[in-house]
Amino acid sequence: MFRAVYLEQIDSVTHARVETLSEERLPEGDVSVDIDFSTINYKDGLAITGRFPVVRKWPMIPGIDLAGTVSASSSERFKPGDKVLANGYGIGDIHWGGLAQKARLNSEWLLPIPANFSTRNAMSIGTAGYTAMLCILALEKHGLRPAHGPILVTGAAGGVGSIAIAILAKLGFEVTASTGRLSEAGYLKSLGATEVIDRATLSSAGEMLGAETWAGAIDTVGSATLANVCAMTQYRGAVAACGLAQGLDFPTTVLPFILRNIALYGIDSVMAPYAVRVEAWSRLSLDLDVSKIDAVTQVLGLDEAIPTGSKVLSGEIRGRVVIDVNN
Q1: Is residue 87 in some structural domain?
Q2: For 146-170, how does the pLDDT look when each residue is reduced to its tens digit (9 = 90+)?
């Protein structure tokens, strides 16, 4: 038996509770994992609250992240005792996910945890940090370097934003942080931001082309914010877009793309190829001072996961939330 956050849909309404389940109910997979930690991400908040239909199979255990120890394996890739992590691949919306004490997964979805990370470290980073690194890799492959100018990070106090700032600063970039919580300016500067701006300056419809301000950007917000970010990106700059907290729309024109030759990279963390995942986690193990992230990570018990889902959606959470599923 094991405990898990359990979601059911009744009359089109999502009901969430912590439930004790039999291991026999775990879905198919060639690797079983005793989970140590999971996380609460924006997508998990949507799943738990039912605010957006991200869950595609019912009933569901949410949690797009997990880290723990292999307890049984019929795969040649892993053996009992191996420390592993998983991000995405449909766990938490199609396949039972990480907000539980146990999981059964396909071995292709698992990665070895880098040797210098604990299972808690891996979840302090989680999908948020992995996504932040995918964004940074896209900007680097575009050719951006610290000498080219500042990088803007929107939604800066959230998980992706916080980790992106910490990595970019360590790599030598000047970082501008955009946030709706200016009271968090000290926190953002402690991560390495050199300037903090109010998100209100970007969140309303602006000019088709603005002043060339940033060499590149990581946007977690979407909608008018992303449009303004593109309009203010320097010639031959690049923007990596990975979120939609403000909305799904993109009210812009082609002008930044054809007059300034900027590039917009869409970042998907869910189905990224295995080799890309390995590269991202390898770079995280080298370029992220995990002590900075651990210092701004809340560790909560499994019973606190459900109320935390709503707080993530309302922007009340700073940095990262790790769920100790055995507490």
Answers
A1: yes
A2: 999 999 999 999 889 999 999 999 9
